[in-house]
Amino acid sequence: MASNQVESIDLVDGQTVRQLSAAVMFAALTAVLAQFSIDLPGGVPFSFQPFAVFFAGLVLGPVWGGFSLTLYFLVGLAGAPVFSNAGAGVGYVLGPTGGFLIGFVVAAALIGFVAHRSLSPGPIEELSPISAAVALLAGLAVIYLAGVPWLASVNGLPLTRAASIMAPFVVGDLIKIGLTVGIVAGGNELLADWR
Amino acid sequence: MLTYTPGSTIVHRLDPRTKLAFQFAFALVAFGTLTLPRLVGLFVIGLGCLHLADLSIRAVLRAYWFVLVVLALGPLIAAITLGPPWLRLDPAVVSLRSVARIVPILFVSAAYIHATPIRETRAAIQRTLPGRVGQLLGVGVALTFRYVPVIRADLRRVRDAIRARNGDTRSLRERSQRLTVLMVVRALRRSDQLAVALQARCFAWNPTLPRLRFSRIDLPVWGLSIGFVAFAAIDLLGF
C-alpha cells in the first residue's frame, strides 16, 4: 500500500544558496591553488594558495569566508587530495603543517571581520587599501601563530627554531599581501560585480 | 595520489562514522605519553589497518612523501647547533620520538582514505553535526569535491591564455595579479551558475540523505575506539 505521508519541502533561501555556492567555489579554488605555483628566478616556488585564503575573507566576509575554508579543511580530512603536495586525511592534518591549515580557517574569518568590520561583507570595491592591508596582516599573523607552534610541537623542536625555519616564508607571504592589496586598490572592476 | 578505491575489505564495509571515531581515538593515544612499547603498538595497529584495507605501505609512503620529508628534517634540525659541538644527540632523540608518532597516524588515515568514498564521509558529517550547519557542511563538502576538477580546468585555461599572450615574460606582480583576479572572477561566475542550478532543483533543508547503517562488524571497532579514549584519558590524568 502506498504511503500517504507527505513532508513539505523547506527551501533554502536565495541569499544562503548564493553564499554557499561562493563558499564552495573558494574552497575548490583553495584546493586547486594549493597545488599551483610559479617558479621564481633560482627555482624558488611562489605558491598561490594564500591568495585564495585572502580573497575568501575579503569577498565573502567572516562567516562565509571561514565556512569556505572549513569546507576545504573537511574535504581534505575526508580524503580528497586537496592539501599541498596532494596531501589528505587526518594524518596530514595532525602532521607538521596541520597548524597552518587550521590557521587558514581562522585567518579567512578574521580577514573578513577586520576588513568589513561586520559579520556581513560589503562590496569589495569599497574596501580601503589600508583596511585590506591590516586585515591581511592580521590573517597572516594568525596563520603563523597557529602553524609555527604546531610545527614545533610535532617535530619536537624549540619554538624559536621552528620560527627561524619559517621566517623566509614570511617574506613571500608579505609580497602576496602587497599584491592582494594592489588588486583591491586597483579598482578591480572585474570583482565589483559580485555580492 | 591516495584516493578511494572500491573494494570489499572489512575496512571498506565499516560505517564511515566508525572509521572516523577510530581515527580520532587512535590519534588521541598517539599524542599521549610516548614510550617505546606504545610506539611499537601504534605501528602494529597502523600497519594492521593498512593490511585490513588491502593497501601497500609503498603506496602510503609515496602519497605522504612530503609530510615524511618534513618529519625527517625535524630531528636533523633539532640536532644542529650554531656553535660547538655543532651536533647534539639529545634534542634529536626528543624530536625523533615526537615525529615517530605521526607515521602510524598516517597509516590509519591512509586506510580510511583508501576505503571510504567521499559521499559516505559527507553523509557522516551531515548525520553527525546537528542542525543546518551540519547540512550545509555536508552539501558543501560534496559540492567542493565535485568542483575541484572544474576549477582546476579553469586554472589550466587561464594559464594557457596568459602564456599564449606572452604573459610568462611579464613581471611577477603582473603575472600573479592577473592570474589571481581571473581565477577569482571565474570562481564567482561559477558560483552564480551553481546558485541558480541549486535553486532550480529546489535545494532544501530537508533532503533525502544517503543511507548509513551500523552493522555487527562496527561493534568491535567502536569498542576499540572507546578503549583508546579511556586509555588516553587515564594517561592524561596521570593514573
Automatic annotation (TrEMBL), chain A:
Q: One of this protein's Pfam families, by short name?
A: BioY
Known Gene3D superfamilies for this protein? 1.10.1760.20
**Alphabetic keyword roster:** Cell membrane, Membrane, Transmembrane, Transmembrane helix, Transport
Q: What is its main location?
A: membrane
Q: A single GO molecular function, which one?
A: biotin transmembrane transporter activity
Q: Where would you find this protein in the cell?
A: Cell membrane
> Per UniProt, what is the membrane topology?
Multi-pass membrane protein
A GO term from the CC aspect: plasma membrane
Could you list the residue ranges that cross the membrane?
20-38, 50-73, 93-115, 127-152, 164-185
Say which family it is in.
Answer: Belongs to the BioY family.
Q: Which PANTHER family does the record match to this protein?
A: BIOTIN TRANSPORTER BIOY
Q: What is this protein called?
A: Biotin transporter BioY
Q: Which organism is it from?
A: Halonotius terrestris
UniProtKB/TrEMBL annotation, chain B:
Q: Where are the transmembrane segments?
A: 20-53, 65-87, 99-118, 219-238
The subcellular location is: Membrane
Per the annotation, which location comes first and is thus the protein's main one? membrane
Q: Give the coiled coil ranges.
A: none
InterPro entries, sorted: ABC/ECF_trnsptr_transmembrane, ECF_transporter_component
Q: Which Pfam families match?
A: CbiQ
Q: Which domain of life is it from?
A: Archaea
Q: How does it sit in the membrane?
A: Multi-pass membrane protein
Can you quote a single GO CC term? plasma membrane
Q: What is the lineage of its organism?
A: Archaea, Methanobacteriati, Methanobacteriota, Stenosarchaea group, Halobacteria
Q: Which organism is it from?
A: Halonotius terrestris
Q: Alphabetically list the UniProt keywords.
A: Cell membrane, Membrane, Transmembrane, Transmembrane helix
What is the official name of this protein in its record? Energy-coupling factor transporter transmembrane protein EcfT
